[in-house]
Amino acid sequence: MPQQVQGDIEALCRKFRRRQIEGSLNTARATAELLRSLITRKGHPDATSLLSDVRIWGTQLQAAKPLELAVGNIVRRVLHMIREECQNEEKEEVATAKVAALSEKEKITGLLSRAFRQPPPRSASLHNLLDLQHDAAATAVPDGPAEQAVAAPSQHAPDSQDVAQSGAQRRRGGHWEGKASIIDQLNELVGELRDIDSNIALHAVEHIHANESILTFGMSDTVLAFLLEAAKKRDFQVVVAEGAPRYGGQELARKLAQAGLHTTAIPDAAIFAMMARVNKVLVGAHALLANGGVMTGVGSHLVALAAKRHAVPFVVLVGLHKLSPLFPHDPSVSFNDFKSPSDVMDFSMVAEVLDAEESTAGVSGEQLYVHAPNPVFDYVPPELISLFVTDTGGYTPSYVYRLLAEYYSREDYTLSKELLDTIIR
């Protein structure tokens, strides 16, 4: 079984390295499904062993694709599920011990009350004098038997420490009973990831109103689903910036026009000029960081600055599977993902430069090369963002810390055990 588990992990890592799985959503879904399969197949006697295995598996998967923070996010959510299940079990054990102790106390109190119960006093008179003497003789209890009757049940009552120890033994013997609950929660997580875009789109009518003009940038499946859902009940216009150099905005404009929306495609150079005519900016995101900033498509920072200058709300559509507890300055967060320079400069221009090298005398070779970087990601700070629309509702950047506390445990912010030990020292 360990070899089969390691083989499945290596297979997914190879897909990550070869870019056979692209996009935050597809990566998160593949990670969640693999963890569900591994947790189901491998036996774990207690929660500690399960936590250790998930941490090791998650560290390997994240190392295979460090630029995709969604991998670590899913692993941290699974670790948080396990920790919460442990806390729930501990609370149940403590509650059971308290009930057992309270029950024993009630038994002792009841026996004492029955053994030493006295009738209510009655005033003596010539009519009931003989009755009072008879009642006093009947209620007299000899010393010894009452004490024995009270002390006897306590010998068989379960102690609170015994109850806690029996709960721990249940976790150590065989398989951990809480694993079934973890698998159920993983099934819910996989279903949540499957419907993430449609869940975000459910909030479209709340944020897009009639006769508005919406500006978006580049291509985003989440933005597309959001706009199509709003178009079912609202009549509005969409201005799409092309998003050079990959020009994903042209594809988005075509799909919106085919769906019947009034669409205007503009070059990126016209964003600032068109910003005064729009009511709202909608963009997708690659990752939501701990400070409320986002990693998104290159060029989005320029769009956010233009929106801020014209006091236009800048709204980011992002699923909570992209919520990361890492900050922009964290060593684990890297923006150094580049595409082919052919998107920026055609290879024919490079050939012209190489041809010029033969006919150019007295010019060093370094001066003949043209650098054409083609970065993928941009960073938008939280002060430029007006609102996040997630699958659970809308939040401001200042609310991100509450979401982190809800979905992750602080002990799991750092997945690498070696790095965690370095930080602790």
Automatic annotation (TrEMBL):
List the InterPro entries: eIF2B_beta_subunit, IF-2B-related, IF_2B-like_C, NagB/RpiA_transferase-like
Task: Please provide an example of a Pfam family that matches this protein in its UniProt record.
Answer: IF-2B
Q: Which UniProt keywords apply?
A: Cytoplasm, Initiation factor, Protein biosynthesis
Q: Where is the protein found, in the record's own terms? A: Cytoplasm, Cytosol
The region called Disordered is annotated at 142-176
Keyword Glycoprotein applies: no
Instruction: Please list every transmembrane segment annotated in the UniProt record, as residue ranges.
Output: none
By sequence similarity, the record places it as follows: Belongs to the eIF-2B alpha/beta/delta subunits family.
Binding partners and assembly = Component of the translation initiation factor 2B (eIF2B) complex which is a heterodecamer of two sets of five different subunits: alpha, beta, gamma, delta and epsilon. Subunits alpha, beta and delta comprise a regulatory subcomplex and subunits epsilon and gamma comprise a catalytic subcomplex. Within the complex, the hexameric regulatory complex resides at the center, with the two heterodimeric catalytic subcomplexes bound on opposite sides.
Protein name per the record: Translation initiation factor eIF2B subunit beta
